[in-house]
Amino acid sequence: MILLFLVAAVGWFGGFYQPESSTLTVKIQGFRSAKGQVGILVFPGKEGFPSDRHKAVRQVLVPLNGTSLVHSFSNLPNGNYAVTVMHDENGNNELDVNFLGIPKEGYAFSGSGAALLGPPSFEKAAVRLEANRTIDLKLSY
User: 120: closest CA among 130, 128, 108?
Assistant: First the structure.
């Protein structure tokens, strides 16, 4: 009887279990060419956001083979994250800007972060990760 109760309790409370880590999948569209590489940074807080790769919890630089890209970051502890993307068309490992500081290569931010007069705040770019999640980003040039 006690065993039956324990099995039922584990089954009942097991339904409330939330995983401690999840996978964040980033789908990126809007590349103006298939040249170069794509840099993706994932930040767990505002420190270093949006461009200090040393403060990112995850970073990747992958060759571009088409006009869209999907990349997954697995085993991220659940929480808030902001993602930045750059299309490094010339392969120099940086986002090229003009003399006014306006990007000449493609970029994108997660969340509701629009980049009208500079990058959004971490709070505007943050997305909540509580389970596996996919976000769709469209590059701006």
Answer: 108
